[in-house]
Write a structure and sequence with these properties.
Elements: H1 21-24, E1 26-30, E2 42-44, E3 48-55, E4 62-71, E5 92-98, E6 100-101, E7 104-109, E8 114-117, E9 121-127, E10 137-144, E11 153-154, E12 166-167, E13 222-231, E14 234-244, H2 252-263, E15 266-271, E16 286-294, E17 297-307, E18 317-327, H3 335-340, E19 346-351, E20 366-374, E21 385-394, E22 400-409, H4 417-428, E23 431-436, E24 457-464
Parallel strand pairs: 8-11, 13-16, 17-20, 21-24
Antiparallel strand pairs: 1-10, 2-9, 3-8, 3-10, 4-5, 4-7, 4-9, 6-7, 7-12, 13-14, 15-16, 17-18, 19-20, 21-22, 23-24
């Protein structure tokens, strides 16, 4: 084996270099840190032998041997080398096929413990049972071809007529079967009849050439991938996807499965299946994994304090509104908070819950308090008059931007002149309208008429727009002399 390095998906320790000849040419194929069923590339040189040693691999469990064709690319660290590759250059697997001897696949069985590969070339080794990853060790070591035990050399004949390391169909022995029935002798020739004069046949009309069927186009080559899902270190699901080589692997099924686990209170830790993965031209199934764990949950409680009217000596009233549970790091729902701000007859005083807020990883139960105060918001006059109250509120902080009241007669429309003026004023200041209860779609007061009760309270939610500022192109000031023309010499227009 050469001294350059390459990895094909297995986490491999760099091969140590020492004066000991046995350690110098030894490479790890599988060990306790293995996460992939396919090893790095290993090269068998001319007049060399590769000793494959297994430790703790159960009998009947196999390591499959694949021949590979290598091309160029960037060589990472690891063990193994493509024959002829320059130090620091690359070797990328372009083609791969099972190693076959006399039409049968070569495999290393756990009951052998040790075998020798003497056929020159580049190889990778695939573990047939991926559940054994991390439970055994397999080493590859370059040795001299002399004095090898014939019974453990891959490709050598064994007394039963088979081939060491070759897995053949049931009843076979690794040899090409021969036909036991000898061929029948040809039948005796019939005596030739004497030639007689026969009439010459008349020329027949030549048949017209028939149109030839179109040659079918070769079907595109397909490949397969397998994605294994682990939840709390336990394997729970395997997803198999196939598709045309070179095309992008669809993520619909993968994303749907991840969402299913997230809805169950799990969270994604890591995955080897990243964006823009494509089907590779491989003779084996490409393996990916996704690891999830049970998400940590947190809980908060909402309380409300209602203060009496100004001037009243009544005590405040505290009420528990409810508790909300969610995953640590997720945004706390604001439904309870928003509902308290819509209660008629109360005005907002304060709150230690200012959305957006998120569930914290703490053992202490978090309590949020919303404080409101009673007040006469809609006094009704003796002569049938009523007051409509308008509040323009900033969306994120609940800050009151503008508020005013208008008077009118119960049953008559609420005038909107002042409403339109304030709305335009705030829009000119950089605010946009989010929602309003003063319109024709108001379910509680569709006609916007004076009612003499809480339906005369109108809430308008505004959002502040952030306009990006480019110092290279500052906004131009209007020219008071000639707004439509650059008559001011100090005006940069």
């Amino acid at each position: 084996m050469s001294n350059c390095s390459i990895i094909t998906g297995k986490k491999v320790h760099a091969v140590s270099r020492s004066s000991n000849a046995e350690e110098t040419n030894r490479a790890v194929l599988f060990d306790s840190l293995s996460t992939n069923a396919v090893t790095h590339v290993v090269t068998v040189g001319e007049c060399k032998a590769l000793k494959i040693s297994t430790f703790a691999l159960p009998a009947g469990k196999k390591i499959l041997v694949h021949r590979v064709y290598l091309g160029g690319g960037v060589m990472p660290f690891g063990s193994g080398c493509a024959c002829g590759a320059d130090e620091g250059k690359s070797a990328i697997v372009q083609l791969s096929e099972p190693l076959r001897i006399r039409c049968c696949d070569v495999a290393i069985d756990g009951c052998a413990g040790m075998l020798f590969l003497t056929i020159p070339g580049d190889y990778v080794f695939e573990l047939e049972d991926k559940t054994l990853l991390g439970q055994f060790v397999a080493l590859a070591e370059e040795v001299e071809c002399c004095c090898l035990p014939e019974s453990t050399v891959i490709g050598s004949e064994i007394p039963t007529g088979g081939i060491v390391g070759v897995e053949c169909p049931k009843g076979g022995n690794g040899n090409v079967p021969k036909d036991p029935t000898p061929p029948s002798p040809p039948p005796p020739e019939k005596p030739k009849e004497p030639e007689t004069l026969r009439p010459q046949p008349q020329p027949q009309p030549q048949p017209q050439p028939q149109p030839q069927p179109e040659t079918p186009k070769p079907q595109p080559k397909r490949s397969k991938v397998e994605i294994e899902f682990f939840v709390d270190e336990a394997s729970v699901y395997k997803l198999n996807i196939d598709g045309e080589v070179g095309t992008k692997i669809p993520r619909d099924a993968f994303d749907a499965k991840i969402k299913e686990y997230l809805d169950q209170g799990k969270e994604l830790v890591t995955t080897t299946f990243v964006e823009d993965e494509t089907f590779l031209d491989l003779n084996y199934t490409k393996y990916y994994m996704a690891k999830l764990r049970t998400a940590k949950m947190s809980k908060v409680i909402f309380k409300r304090v209602i203060l009496p009217k100004e001037g009243s000596i009544a005590d405040p009233v505290t009420t528990t509104l409810g508790e909300v549970t969610g995953k640590v790091g997720d945004e706390i729902p604001r439904t309870i908070y928003d509902n308290q701000l819509k209660i008629g007859g109360y005005k907002f005083v304060s709150s230690d819950f200012i959305p957006p807020m998120y569930f914290a990883d703490t053992e202490t139960l978090k309590v949020y308090t919303i404080t409101l105060q009673e007040y006469d918001f809609n006094p009704v006059w003796e002569d049938g008059r009523a007051t409509a109250n308008f509040k323009f509120i900033k969306q994120d902080t609940r800050q009151i931007l503008k508020e005013f009241s208008v008077m009118g007669i119960i049953g008559k429309p609420v005038p909107r002149t002042r409403y339109d003026e304030v709305l335009l004023e705030l829009q000119n200041q950089g605010y946009t309208l989010v929602s309003t209860t003063f319109n024709s779609s108001n379910a509680s007061n569709p006609s916007n008429i004076f009612t003499g009760d809480s339906r005369d309270d109108f809430e308008i939610i505004m959002k502040e727009e952030v306009v990006p500022f480019d110092p290279n192109t500052p906004p131009r000031k209007p020219n008071p002399i000639a707004p439509d023309g650059p008559n001011d010499p100090m005006d940069p227009r």
